[in-house]
């Protein structure tokens, strides 16, 4: 393995490093422009994009609505992260980390923000009392799998996905390291799902919603070019069984289409889905 990079004593920012995200990535935080966020009429205002982290939340909202919680009506606004919408002052006020998804909960007398997809899932599950077990042992198991997912997603996306698909040069060491870790994570899920119908036990929970969006994209071979073949994902049969079951849920189908190019850019009412080919919604 060739080593060409001579590490300087102090790191400095090379603005033009040529990477796929060079135009938006920077080593500083905070707003870069004054931009107010749009505001709809529903109790929840979601600012997001149809990525694996984004659709965790739209799936959750569609699940809540499908379960009959009318109070879970939401407006989903599009944040174009390629254009830098996440650095506008309105968005940064909701998420100082400048990443989608960000939620404004305006359902009560005092409105407040929630950021980080895992925190949003927990907040909504607690608020509506669903998709999060109440029994102490099952609840702990659900939180364990949810935190497992939140902690490991960057190894799949920022690690494997970045170096396999986006980096301007193919670095064997980096691809090997993150491919190994991504396969290990698939194996963790596969072992668990061999013994359990869902991650936290017999019931579908927010831990499944969180992990499904990431593992599902790779398993269906919809992420990072031909990465699914590269990682031989077909060998994880129990993950496949679990993904198939979740794929078939109507709320999941709808949630995956929100803030997305193959679905609807924004969602302000259930009728917004009517413009889509029914095959997308019904499978
Ligand atoms: N841990 C965060 C990660 C969110 C995240 O990485 N969002 C990405 C899109 S999937 C993003 O907004 N990236 C924009 C940027 O990095 O500037 C979560 O789960 O909410």
Biggest sheet strand line-up: 2-1-3-4
Topology order in helix (H) and strand (E) letters:
EHEHEEHHHHHHHH
Mean pLDDT: 96
Q: Give the oligomer, counting copies of the same chain as homo and different chains as hetero.
A: single chain
What's the N-to-C terminus distance?
Answer: 46 Å
Question: What topology does this entry show?
Answer:
Blueprint (H helix, E strand, L loop, with lengths): L43 E5 L3 H15 L7 E5 L10 H6 L7 E4 L6 E4 L1 H12 L7 H31 L5 H24 L10 H14 L7 H4 L6 H11 L2 H6 L22 H5 L1
Parallel strand pairs: 1-2
Antiparallel strand pairs: 1-3, 3-4
Helix pairs in contact: 1-3, 1-6, 4-5, 4-6, 5-8, 6-8
The structure holds glutathione.
What's the gist of this structure?
The protein contains 10 helices and 4 strands; from the N terminus they run βαβαββαααααααα.
Structure characterization notes:
With 283 residues, this protein is of the alpha+beta class. The protein folds into two domains: 1-131 and 252-283, Glutaredoxin, CATH 3.40.30; 136-247, Glutathione S-transferase Yfyf (Class Pi), Chain A, domain 2 (Up-down Bundle), CATH 1.20.1050.10. The chain has ten helices and four strands. The chain has helices at residues 52-66, 89-94, 117-128, 136-166, 172-195, 206-219, 227-230, 237-247, 250-255, 278-282; strands spanning 44-48, 74-78, 102-105, 112-115. A four-stranded mixed β-sheet has the order 2-1-3-4. β1 (44-48), α1 (52-66) and β2 form a beta-alpha-beta unit. α4 runs parallel beside α6 (206-219), α5 (172-195) packs across α8 and α6 packs across α8 (237-247). The longest helix is centred in the middle third of the chain and has 31 residues, at 136-166. The model has no long low-confidence stretch (mean pLDDT 96). Residues 24, 51, 53, 81, 86, 98-101, 116-117 line the site of glutathione (GSH).
């Amino acid at each position: 393995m060739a080593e060409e990079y001579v590490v300087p004593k102090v790191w400095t920012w090379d603005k033009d490093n040529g990477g796929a995200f060079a135009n938006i990535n920077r080593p500083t935080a905070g707003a870069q422009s004054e931009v107010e966020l749009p505001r709809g009429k529903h109790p929840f205002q979601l600012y997001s994009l149809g990525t694996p982290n984004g659709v965790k939340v739209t799936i959750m909202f569609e699940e809540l609505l499908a379960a009959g919680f009318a109070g879970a009506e939401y407006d989903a606004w599009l944040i174009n992260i390629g254009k830098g919408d996440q650095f506008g002052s309105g968005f940064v006020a909701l998420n100082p980390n400048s990443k989608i998804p960000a939620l404004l909960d305006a359902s009560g007398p005092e409105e407040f923000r929630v950021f980080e997809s895992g925190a949003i899932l927990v907040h909504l599950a607690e608020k509506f009392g669903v998709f999060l077990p109440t029994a102490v042992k099952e609840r702990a198991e659900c939180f364990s799998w949810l935190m497992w997912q939140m902690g490991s997603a960057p190894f799949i996306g920022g690690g494997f996905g970045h170096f396999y698909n986006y980096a301007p040069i193919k670095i064997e060491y980096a691809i090997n390291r993150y491919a190994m870790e991504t396969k290990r994570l698939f194996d963790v899920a596969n072992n668990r799902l061999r013994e359990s119908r869902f991650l936290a036990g017999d019931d579908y929970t927010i831990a499944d919603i969180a992990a499904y969006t990431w593992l599902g994209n790779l398993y269906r071979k919809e992420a990072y070019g031909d990465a699914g073949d590269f990682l031989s994902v077909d060998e994880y049969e129990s993950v496949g069984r679990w993904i198939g079951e979740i794929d078939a849920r109507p709320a999941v189908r709808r949630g995956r289409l929100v803030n997305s190019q193959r679905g609807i850019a924004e969602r302000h009412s259930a009728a917004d889905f009517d413009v889509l080919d029914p095959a997308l919604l019904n499978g």
